[in-house]
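Re: weekly structure request thread

Next one in the queue (67 aa):
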Amino acid sequence: SMELYLMYNSARRIFEKQGVTVIRSLVGSYVTSLDMAGCSITLTMLDDDMAALWDAPVHTAALRWGM
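Done, posted below.
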């Protein structure tokens, strides 16, 4: 949805002004609930081991890539 991408772009600019480098991002409705308002942002540190796991093929109900 366009609103999520607008929020992401605003957040990314704020992070980069603070010296935080965004390496990977997912924007979308991955975890939702009925009557949920607003959005959530999750950040994590990404080292080489975690990046390799992140980039590995995945096939779940919510995410699919590298298959």
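Residues 2-27+39-65 form one domain. The mean pLDDT is 90.
Next request, please.
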